[in-house]
Amino acid sequence: MSNKVIIPITGVIIAIIAIAVVMINFEQPETMEIEDTIDREIQPVEETTPEIQEKLDEIKKINLENTYSPKDREWITSGPFQIDRSEYLLGEKIFLRIGGLDYKEKGQVVFLRPLNITHYEVYWSIPFDGADKPAFNYYLQPQLSKIKGYCSVDDFVGDWRVVFRGTDYQNLEFKIIEDILPGDENNYQPVC
Asked: How far is CA 5 from CA 2, 10, 49, in A?
């Protein structure tokens, strides 16, 4: 009786193994598809339409007009305070470097924006304390703000001053010109 049960079970196992072997042999490996793709010849793209070519030429022209390279850093200095340039485009960051503050030096670096030829207004103030931190860097980028009342580029263009409150160091001066850093044009559209 045990032979009668073992023979059908053995037959079923052999049948399952045979089906599995047949299925594995008929499966094509994915590497063949990759090799076939590599061996195919790349077909050239059809010629561009006049409209597309015109747009491509326009983009090339704009890119040539907007070539920008920042001016070399000048490092204008007053005591331990330095700014990196005397002239900036709208959108360029003003880099302030402070190094070697005396332990007793404490005050504020104040950026003054021009209101007219003779008057200035505080744009930004940065506290410093030589006892706490004798050296640090700071980036400043004037930006339009409806809330703060900086509505157009006219609020930033002109001769700026950097004053060092609490010290006897001389003021630094720099200029922001009307030109806008390429790619930042949308950031300088009037907001008020």
From this structure: 5, 9, 77
Residue 68, CA distances (Å) to 59, 71, 137, 155, 157 in order: 16, 9, 25, 24, 19
Closest-CA residue to 113 (of 174, 171, 164): 174
Asked if residue 187 lies in contact with residue 156, where contact means CB atoms within 8 angstroms, the answer is no
d(CA 88, CA 176): 5
As a whole number of angstroms, the longest Cα–Cα distance in the chain is: 117
pLDDT band of 30, cuts 50, 70, 90: low
How many residues comprise the chain?
192
Residue 159 DSSP symbol:
E
Which segments of the chain does DSSP mark as H helices, in order? Answer: 2-26, 30-39, 50-65
Q: How far apart are CA 14 and CA 50, in angstroms?
A: 68
**Measured torsion, CA atoms of residues 158, 163, 168, 172, in degrees rounded to the nearest 10:** -40
Stretch (H or E) spanning 121: strand 120-129
The region that residue 183 occupies, defined by phi over 0 for left and psi between -120 and 50 for alpha, beta otherwise, is left
Nearest to 90 by CA among 6, 21, 185, 190: 185
pLDDT in the model for residue 57: 82
Rg (CA), the chain: 35
The better pLDDT of the pair 20, 170 is held by 170
